[in-house]
Design brief:
Elements: H1 3-19, H2 24-35, H3 38-59, H4 64-96, E1 104-107, E2 114-117, E3 123-126, E4 131-136, E5 141-153, E6 162-166, E7 169-173, E8 177-183, E9 186-193, E10 196-201, E11 207-212, E12 216-221, E13 224-229, H5 232-238, E14 245-252, H6 253-263, E15 267-270, H7 273-276, E16 279-285, H8 289-300, E17 303-306, E18 310-314
Helix pairs in contact: 1-3, 1-4, 3-4
Amino acid sequence: MSAIDIEARAAEWLERRVGENWSQDNQAALDAWLAQSPAHTVAYWRLNAAWSRTRRLAAVHPQKEAQSWTANRFLPILLRLAAGLAIVAVGIAAAQFLLQPRERTFSTAIGGHESVAFADGSRIELNTNTVLRARMTTDQRIVWLDRGEAYFQIKHDPAHPFIVMVGNHRVTDLGTQFSVRRETGRLQVAVMQGRVTLDAPDAQGAAQIALLTPGDVATAVANRISVKRASQKILTLGLSWRHGALVFDNTSLSDAAVEFNRYNRQQLVIADPSVASLKIYGTFRADNVGDFTRLTEAVFGLRVADQGNRIVLSH
C-alpha cells in the first residue's frame, strides 16, 4: 500500500472504532491489519493520539453541545487532514527515499549478547534470543522490538523523540535509560534514569498513556498497564544479563529455571510442583546450568536427570 492508502485505511479503522459498536471480531481484524506492517501501526496510533487528545479537551468543556460537536464533527476533519498530510508526506518521502538509510535488523542467538552504537550517541544492548529492527535517520528514530529484551541508553533529542514499538505498544524516550522485555502476551518496561511514556490501547481501543520515572516497572498485559516501584538494587539485578550473569534473591526454583532456559538450549524441567516453590539465592553464569543443578543437589537433595536436550529436577 502507498502512504496515502495506509493513512486512509488507518482513518477508516479509527472512524469505525469511534462510530460503531466495537466487537471482538472488529478488534481482531484491526490487530491483523496493524501486524501487517510497522507503517500501519505508526499511521493508526498517530491518528488515535490526535483523536484522544481532542476527546480529553472536550471532556472538560462545560457544554454538552460542544462535546457532541467535537465527537461528530472533528473526526471527519481530522481524517481529511490526515489524508492531506499523507499526500505531502508522499512527496517528501519520494524526494528523500534514496538519501535515507534502510531499516537495519540486529539479532542475537540463544545465549547471545550484542551492543549497538548509533551516530546520535545512543546505544542499545540486545539480550539473548532478541530481534530488533532500527530506522535511524536525521528526522526519525524508531526501533521495533520483535522478540526478546534490550537495554536502551538514549541521547535525548526533543525534536526527534526515540520510539520503541513492541506490537501495538509504544515506548517514547524523554531522555533516559530503560529496558524493554517482550514475552508472549506480556511487555515489561523498567526505567533506570530519566522518563519514558508507555502507550497502549485499552479494551475499547482508546489510548492509555503511562508516564514512567526512575524506579518504575510497567507491565502491559492485553489491554491493561500496571506500574509498580522497584529499588535501585532490584533494577540493577534485573540487568545482570549485561555481564553474562543471573542473580537470584529469594527466587522460586521454577522462576530460576525459566530464566536459565532463556539462555541455554538444554532446558531445565521441574517435574515436581513441590520442587518448583523452593527458594534459591545466588549468582550464576547464564550459560552454566551445571553449577546451578549441582547446587540444587547439594542444598535441596534433588535428583538431577540429564536427558540430553533437557535436565529434569525432582525429589
